[in-house]
Design a protein that fits this description.
The protein is α/β, with parallel strands linked by helices. The chain has 2 domains: 10-170, Glucose-6-phosphate isomerase like protein, domain 1 (Rossmann fold, 3-Layer(aba) Sandwich), CATH 3.40.50.10490; 194-327, Glucose-6-phosphate isomerase like protein, domain 1 (Rossmann fold), CATH 3.40.50. It has 13 helices and 9 strands. It has helices at residues 10-15, 17-34, 53-66, 102-114, 125-134, 152-165, 172-192, 195-204, 215-233, 257-263, 276-289, 306-327, 336-347, and strands at 46-50, 74-77, 90-96, 118-122, 138-140, 208-214, 238-242, 264-270, 296-300. Strand 4, helix 5 (125-134) and strand 5 form a beta-alpha-beta unit.
Amino acid sequence: MSERHDSLDMLGATLGLPEQFDDARRAAVEVARQADGLPAGDEIDAVVVVGMGGSGIGGDVLAAIGADTAACPIVVSKDYTLPAFAGPRTLVIGASFSGNTEETLEAISGAEAAGAPWVAVTAGGQLGERAAAAGRPVFPVDGTIPMPRAGIAAVSVPPIVLLEQLGLLPGASGQLDAASAQLHARRDALVADDREVVRLAAHIDRTMPLVYGGGPIGEVAAVRWKNQINENAKAPAFAHSVPELMHNEICGFGQHGDMTRQVFSLIELRHSGEHAQVERRFQLLRPLLDEVVHDRFVIEAQGEGPLAQLFDLVLYGDLWSLHVAFHEGVDPGPIPVLIDLKAALARS
């Protein structure tokens, strides 16, 4: 393994995810209890979460665990605009770690124009200032977290707490309890013995991961793994979901197997909440791809319930992406290309 570089202590932040989860929950419960000006749950027809990157993934988590239990639709918007239906009966959650994400700020302006009630999930910045000025609730994000992508619990837990408080996400407290317990258990196990995740990082070798997950939980986990490889290891990766990929992407392996075997490794993220036919499709997928990828790995989620299993996969994948970076001698923290892009946008 190359010499380890971790200038922002991303490893420490990742191993601190269980405490981040618990702290975010305590803070969110206090804000939700004291929040003024929010409509009652029966006055909300839809929830829209706006946010980008490591902040916006909190919306993906919320939508995934609410897919089967939420009392209203949950829509995630990663853009400058809100869906056309947004109005006074739409609750808008604006998530921005820095508080200065331009897409999120513009979407919040759209919420105000539409008369939609909104709340902020942020460490401050312009979003925090606007929320304070408008008398909107602010769910605080710990600004000492080194990068937004290291703050997934800080941006995911507050919307869950808020929707349960409004009666729109029944049973969320039990899921939060189970997720916290699983995060602590998985972290402690990985600290005691991380050989499995280190081996996975090494076995990927310099191939590009194809990360496949099943259903809403698996899809969010797969996208998270992809994004973490992109930002931590500064390497390409791709994500897709079962069953959707079996209607399109699977066709793309009809040619060039001699090349794809050299450049792609397949990672299956599995969980106990998969539809029976999703499980069957994974079984059918294997013989189709085993001959056209470098290797195939299966990661089984642990924990009780969808939120626990999702965060179990998140923690495992986050740590894996760091070890991929360390294996290649890459510092996972800094992301200069994103800084350059933001500077270029500011100049235009």
